[in-house]
Records
---
Amino acid sequence: MRVLHHLPLSPYARKVRLVLAEKRLPYELRVEKTWERRTEYLEMNPAGTVPTLVEDNGLIIPDSAVICEYLDEAYADSSLMGRTIAERIEVRRLIAWFDGKFAAEVTSNLYGEKYLRRLTGRGIPDPAAIRTGYTALRYHLEYLGWLAETRKWLAGHALSVADFAAAAHLSTLDFIGEVDWTISPAVKDWYARMKSRPSFRGILADRVPGTTPPAHYADLDF
Amino acid sequence: MRVLHHLPLSPYARKVRLVLAEKRLPYELRVEKTWERRTEYLEMNPAGTVPTLVEDNGLIIPDSAVICEYLDEAYADSSLMGRTIAERIEVRRLIAWFDGKFAAEVTSNLYGEKYLRRLTGRGIPDPAAIRTGYTALRYHLEYLGWLAETRKWLAGHALSVADFAAAAHLSTLDFIGEVDWTISPAVKDWYARMKSRPSFRGILADRVPGTTPPAHYADLDF
């Protein structure tokens, strides 16, 4: 059975879980406590990050961006990376936006400071980083809202990995109660459509020790 | 004429310049002072980073990873992303390694602190970051040395974007005199082979105001 090494709240692992489910590729989840830096895991993925995907045939694919490109090439009949050259540019631009800029400005300042820091025993949260995170989240929700208002899906007329990248970050932030869904009705509408997809069920069912998600987290009519 | 918006010492722009030259795609360079945040540039690339590629037909491609994927799809006859599924995974893993981990641990601590900070008027370099950068550079050169010793090119038997990603970062660090080439003879050999390629000439000819590269920078027998 295909194995995905992950952490339940990792937005990068969540993006891959969504893509696997969307492509109807069965897999088994295995939690990897990356901060323990297990030798066997570092041999598979020297960067020591989650997720890492291990295929039935033994092929090891580290890094969520590498995994998504791989899955789209290996299981090409249901492409989620765009069809035309221009669509593929926009899908990849937005994935880089959410996994690069949004991650650095929002996710690492909120999820990183308020959750990961405690989980991995790296001291107390930095209030300045958290303030920066809230400011950036508002700005990013406005940009996301503009995308959601002017397009059917974030990268254009087709659902793509860009939607799953964005939804993965928001779902992680929503789990720890950090998303104010009143900021952008267009974002809320788009996220409600994402949440209703069968591929999202696993993520909505996630539970982790020590943190209870808000009641609306798994509610499709939030 | 195809235009690449860049900064001469940006490792991300250098990677794309190398790939364009390797694929014999002519282009014109235009310097973009990203810290000025020009509206016209942000409209092309909301992330505000370099490089951004503008094709003759008007197609705008931001982000060096997106550009490299695009170039390999649009000009597929000379693939630099690997041929088999396994090769493509390894090429992309190493690009993510150098542009993610190496960039964060080495390039941003040395080039970022010692050069970019002054250039963009963001105060004085942080000595702790610079120390971290030197320690990480040694560790990364050892890993790079292991790759160079055990493989013909970094990702395997074929030259790939992984080589250009790594060489781009090292060339930027070498320009500001930060690479100790005695640490790994295998890395030096590999870099000498990279430097000798015609695609490298533009990068070796770069000059920027206020910084003179060491004498060995453009020397093929360094």
Note: Chain A has a mean pLDDT of 96.
---
Amino acid sequence: YCYMPEILCISLNTHLYNVPFFTVPLARAHGKSFAHRSDLRQAKRIVVKLGSAVVTRGDECGLALGRLASIVEQVAMLQNQGREMMIVTSGAVAFGKQRLRHEILLSQSVRQALHSGQNQLKDMSLPVLEARACAAAGQSGLMALYEAMFTQYSTCTAQILVTNLDFHNDQKRRNLKSTLHELLRMNIVPIINTNDAVVPPPEPNSDLQGVNVISIKDNDSLAARLAVEMRADLLIALSDVEGLYDSPPGSDDAKLLDTFYPGDQHSITYGTKSRVGIGGMEAKVKAALWALQGGTSVVIANGTHPKVTGHVITDIVEGKKVGTFFSEVKPAGPTVEQQTEMARSAGRTLASLEPEQRSDIICALADLLTERKDQILSANKKDMEHAVSTGRLSPAMLKRLSLSSSKLNSLSIGLRQIAVSSQDSVGRVLRRTRVANNLELEQITVPIGVLLVIFESRPDCLPQVSALAIASGNALLLKGGKEAANTNRILHELAQEALSIHGVKDAIQLVSTREEEEDLCRLEKMIDLIIPRGSSQLVRDIQRAAKGIPVLGHSEGICHVYVDHEASVDKAIKIIRDSKCDYPAACNAMETLLVHRELLRTPLFDQIIDMLRTEHVKIHAGPKFASYLTFSPSEVKSLRTEYGDLECCIEVVDSMQEAVDHIHKYGSSHTDVIVTENEDTAEQFLQQLDSACVFWNASSRFADGYRFGLGAEVGISTARIHARGPVGLEGLLTTKWVLRGEGHTAADFSEQGSMTYLHENLPVARVLPGRRTTS
Amino acid sequence: YCYMPEILCISLNTHLYNVPFFTVPLARAHGKSFAHRSDLRQAKRIVVKLGSAVVTRGDECGLALGRLASIVEQVAMLQNQGREMMIVTSGAVAFGKQRLRHEILLSQSVRQALHSGQNQLKDMSLPVLEARACAAAGQSGLMALYEAMFTQYSTCTAQILVTNLDFHNDQKRRNLKSTLHELLRMNIVPIINTNDAVVPPPEPNSDLQGVNVISIKDNDSLAARLAVEMRADLLIALSDVEGLYDSPPGSDDAKLLDTFYPGDQHSITYGTKSRVGIGGMEAKVKAALWALQGGTSVVIANGTHPKVTGHVITDIVEGKKVGTFFSEVKPAGPTVEQQTEMARSAGRTLASLEPEQRSDIICALADLLTERKDQILSANKKDMEHAVSTGRLSPAMLKRLSLSSSKLNSLSIGLRQIAVSSQDSVGRVLRRTRVANNLELEQITVPIGVLLVIFESRPDCLPQVSALAIASGNALLLKGGKEAANTNRILHELAQEALSIHGVKDAIQLVSTREEEEDLCRLEKMIDLIIPRGSSQLVRDIQRAAKGIPVLGHSEGICHVYVDHEASVDKAIKIIRDSKCDYPAACNAMETLLVHRELLRTPLFDQIIDMLRTEHVKIHAGPKFASYLTFSPSEVKSLRTEYGDLECCIEVVDSMQEAVDHIHKYGSSHTDVIVTENEDTAEQFLQQLDSACVFWNASSRFADGYRFGLGAEVGISTARIHARGPVGLEGLLTTKWVLRGEGHTAADFSEQGSMTYLHENLPVARVLPGRRTTS
């Protein structure tokens, strides 16, 4: 019962070795593989296969310790979560090679080389080491290292050496299985390797520059075989390739497949072989498909990428898009990559429509919102009921989720406003220059391309953003929250119905709620701009996840109201109340109130404090304010705090200039307000302050696209390039330069050339683009 | 001679243990520490000190294997470079704790716990382990692990255990030193630790939540002592803090010090203690200063940061800005961080000047360029002579480095053009809206903030970029190449002289050539926009290095010329020749020529080929073109190639539409040209193609700010947000929203409120900003 087979060498017979493992019939068909990556979280029994490229160093002498250690860390973590982990490992040859090389050097009496202060081991010419000897010499060290490493995580390991023959004999197979089951039951991680020392001499392999290595071709199939035999839920095969490409990686069109279905096999061309070890992609795929058929899910991924090695295994088990996932179940709809392609293509047609046609589409959508009211509200009711029954949403969130007849009506009105403004957005001529005779330049507005909008529970966001995208000629990917799934689905259908009028149905795509936001943020070169609409936490997460794709938005709104000593009492009270209390969770709500020192102990100041108390605003004192008081409210931890609630910080400043300096230092460049009756002071504040919105005698709450008169708002940006402040249609446009000539060349304008630059500005107003004004 | 002291325990005496190592007088004063980080590359003998937080896991039971492995990898790499590496390590206690806990559990007959399928070790209550016993139990395992790891890199290690007393006795100290010298001579890495087993019982330490740990307070000072004793050039002390802050980390103003000078000690407030282990920041700094005084350079850095752990040691040795560098030599000028602060502050004043004042400054600079011609040219001559004598620059680079009287004259003329355009840049009103009665909104142009321009050898770039920055009211950091150091210095002096006219001398700063570009790209929150001007390799490097700061530019220019079947022969030949041959290295040169299929085997086609042959352009064939030919030129590897030389790819397309699709697929959205006489075809091409510049019957070489009439050019952007195509002044501006009210609040506009939105567009032309038009 307590017998621990620390080293278990199953008997061997070499002549059958070259039969691939996966041709041996399955002992018994078992469960089903997972349909989606997100299901992988449920995987209990997991086989991790480590290819030689993962385990060994670049020069194939010695192990890649950093990688090995981080893999051990992840495996131990998953084991400690209650999963049953097994490892199929390479690396004995490399370990042995390193060891034997050292031995040979020493026996060649080169000890003196060690004393030169330079490591000359690398430069020495060495006899070719026989790989089987290396494997034998390295096996013990490799296992010792695994054991030492796993010991750091209180995890016990066991060594299993197998050959193909062990799977051919029923008795042996039963023995192997029962041993492995016993190990798993005892919470031990079995480490499995082929018994390389007893295989026939390897054939020389020209791919590896004549280096004599052991044919461990079948570590892939060994892992597959073991996974199925042990009814593992998941097989993770790590090597130095990213996964499966549809054509050889490196070729112009090669695309990494996120998910691969058995039926797709004819559609791919295999890529290059792994640098180290044997077993090209084709062999890996064969083994993977075999395991899949046997009911084990498979992910093939790169275990050598420095940036992800530390979490590649745990990421896969968390369902993230790493490498290629092998799935038997082909989902009904297109993948998100296909959706993006469809959106871009239809978006290009959308951009080439006449402005009136885009306007038509938006009006049609506005109509549908009221015509199909019942359908929308019944879908919304479903979402509401589900949300109430699960009790996961706060009352505020529930309110944002719910739609009503009147909400749909005002949405519809808003859309019609966007339709009007859309007439003058795409293709507008911003600049027109006569560069030379018959050489005319135009700068015109064009759509940005493909937008990804990620929004939380509010479903009314969907038609709004759709209308903005249509108006600006952009393709759009929408990712809504799970809680609004039904509402979003019907709203998206209506948007597509409206788009169909002019044959551009696919320009707006709704991404499945299954997709992880983080994965979407990695679709570089497919998406041109990401717009997160929701909490500042959402924005921060997206900003962090988005690599190489710009994100429009702001993660912080630390807005200030500065009350000057020449402020009007009424205005100050009104503006402070509105800025703080109108909607404290908004990003444009006041967080810090700056008060001119002369106002301390004046009636105005007392009135401000009374008002804040009446409104139940919790007051924190800035360090300077606290120093003026005998009994002060709690002092702030940081002057850079966004409370987002009925709380604020009060700080004292000596002058308008000090207020400006304070805001530059602690603000987030969102919206800042001065309350004063002195116009000069106000204008200086407005001029000097470097925020996206600067207000005089007006509440910070006006920082909003609708209130600014921009129509619907895409978001508020605190970035310093592209759009800044509340962003409407214009933030969704970029420009292109159109030059029309008659065979003009740069050489014509050189010193020897016949032409000179005119650079004459031409009027741009109301001229249709695309027609030359002179000839 | 060949005696290898694998384990060397120096004798011990406990009663003197608590004397800190660094109070023991130096045996002998030696060399000088390095003045600059970049000198660290010369460090031959290096001590790496690994704090407990680095070596042990978060729960302090067991080692952080991934970190340890990557540290071993770096140390072995440096050792193999010929350096002499020594390690002072913690970790024995953690290793022993893990081991003893396991033993105790087993002896408590909890074997059955192992069979539950769950790892319950963590949940078990355990007796507090005596730290000295842990240390003794862990020491052997720790050393075995180090040895196993270093073995993978053919590196031999030796163990040294010391106590304070070993430094007090001259004879012992001599023994220790001679042992260490012998080890270094034999290319062995000594691994040094305090002999914890023999120290007096530790005092309980409340900072560590009552966990009973050994007082290893003095591993910092041990490392310092050893470094000085062994005349090490560099001591790298790794723990879990980023380095030294000027005030406690986490407070609003805390700033990580890049370099710390002994004289600055009074100006800092010490931060929190390291989470694991003993020895707060103050102790580390004391030890570091002591080592510095002894002639050893010191860097304190974080060895636990997942993103950099794999290269923290090698980065430090390469002179990168990691952690805090302790230096005795305070440089004369300000640090780059101080320069950025100065620039931002002066830049704000620059932005608040009247447009005429900014224009004055630019004109003054233009004057200075001609007035001080002799001075500039003599500095340039120095650079040229140096470049010629070292022979590092190619003839093309030399040409770009050289200035002449006539170059200065045209520079001066260009600056005057910028001065004119500067009149209408900052503070321009783009939009004006009457939001409600007495509530008026303006959108006005404002500078972006602080620009960092990195440019390669061309020194004429400096006055140009300076003028653009002044015109747009931006602060500017300039980083030029080493080869133009003298020229850049004088040009920068002249720029500051011009700025002084209006008291904003500091708005433009020249960064020392010592600074690494990569480090500058990390000054997030200090720099708002980076503009690399130079090779596409430079741009790519900067884009990769810039985290969180936008980069304006493009890394690829794969421009196409499409010759339609209705093209004019003359125009086609002229445009192709100019696009490819005028300046093949430019980003706007043609890389791929697309030819309509019907042109094959026509005289036009033959003429094109003849012309390309005459111009010595090497032709590569696209796959489709190759298939049409019996004997084709070499087929392209990728249709996405930027040759940047007298080479191009020719491909055949069936239609204008196919040309557009080809360019969308393989192009870089830079500049693409159609040659045709058919206006409809041309207009469709111009409309459909989604590149920054689309040309009809004009050479791709026109894609250039000067040729477009934008005045001087900042660069060409292929990004889809902010500026696109050739970027002039406008790309250096952003906007802010100014709202002027009379106590307006958002609540006034609610259903219960008294006001309604007007959103009336007001005329913007020629109204000075800042004054209300109505009352």
Note: Chain A touches chain B through 121 residues (CB under 8 Å).
---
Amino acid sequence: MAKKVLIVYAHQSSGSFNAAAKNAAVEVLTAQGCIVDVSDLYAMGFKATATAEDIKGEVKNAENFCYLEESKLAWEQGKLSADIMEEQSKLTVADLIIFQFPMYWFSVPAILKGWIDRVLTNGFAFSQEKRYSQGIFKDKKAMLSFTTGSLESMFSPTGINGDMNVTLWPLQNGILHYCGFQVLAPQIFWAPSSAVAEDRKSMLESWRTRLQGLLEEKPLSFISLDCFDDKAFQLKPEVHEKHASKEFGLTVGIHLNKPLPPHSQMKAGC
Amino acid sequence: MAKKVLIVYAHQSSGSFNAAAKNAAVEVLTAQGCIVDVSDLYAMGFKATATAEDIKGEVKNAENFCYLEESKLAWEQGKLSADIMEEQSKLTVADLIIFQFPMYWFSVPAILKGWIDRVLTNGFAFSQEKRYSQGIFKDKKAMLSFTTGSLESMFSPTGINGDMNVTLWPLQNGILHYCGFQVLAPQIFWAPSSAVAEDRKSMLESWRTRLQGLLEEKPLSFISLDCFDDKAFQLKPEVHEKHASKEFGLTVGIHLNKPLPPHSQMKAGC
């Protein structure tokens, strides 16, 4: 059966490098027989802010409105606003989600954070029991594809912005892996706006080449949920002990006070 | 002269724990003689998305709109939209900025990311020369004050969400320190929604106590800009060598492939 791909795209301009990267993904994946859908957030005027208007009708507790709880309830009762439900439908059928964006302030632009805050509803995208390796979307893949303003050297463990693996951890672990997604290595376009036209072209060519095998790629490594106890959610003593003599921590975040495993948020198999 | 404090506050409800934390800050700091201003983002209906409407009149390049460049130009020409200019005025006079928010997806809510994306304009808040320890706001202090859904144990180097120091790095280094702010230790309210009323009360009491000495606190440690060369922005060989025999990396991001310095994004003097 044809694979379904959703591209969540956040750039204001159709003339941008991000637009070209998005168009390349649509073309190459469609040519492979995939069915590709694009959520063009700026063009859609996508609402970024999580408010009571996201819920149709009365909220449960207007005095002390808690978005996490109210949106969960609204999802259960089919009362989420139409724009959220539409995005959730696209996500439900997708096998792979590609987030295409320019990095703003070491993270995603606010309009894309808004998609994350509003669409990945409590209950729909995660629950206390269903998260990380047991997450709701564990049969789906997801990846970040983004441009930076900084050069690659600046995002190294000796560079001024620090290791990109650290910057990616909250996004790739805290959002994508949290919902269970198998996280494919990020596609990072280093400072295309500082590059000459020829280099920009070759960045896109290399993305096109990667896209051809993207759906068969091995995902990044994270830690299985059953390595943690279910009260304090600490690494089980036996897992900790087993890893005691190893040189590196398990992941960027679960580093056990050891050096971070190199490239673990950038390359599969690290 | 009276110190000026700006609280950038992002919660939907005046009955929330975040509202109580914000109110405590207003009260205690005002009682100390500070002049406190609050940007209540949801109440203001603050626009979160970075679009061409943020610029009055014609943009320079509509075909290939680049927010970073266009907003810089608009700032230089006094053509930024009124809501952005208003926030920039508040920031300009402030000695301390407190960001008060519930953590959403290992980061700030989209509405607050929108404030960051739109208000910290290229030119106004940073430039290629003026950033990090030479940053434009180096005479100001800033801090994060936030609630989590997760317990503290879950955000440790052996916990399921990984070390909170890692999660804070992109926010505290990539946004606050990038603009030059002296970054005060974060105020983290661990899972108040899971706590009993008495514990929530004591969390607020401890915040009130901290607020009394807040303006005299020593900031977190980062690395001086002159430790990096000015081409690839890599740590200078002499700094690297000087640190070679040390047990820990310099910071969370500039970790030199050593273990991360413990608590360095959580406590001053680490």
Note: Chain A has a mean pLDDT of 97.
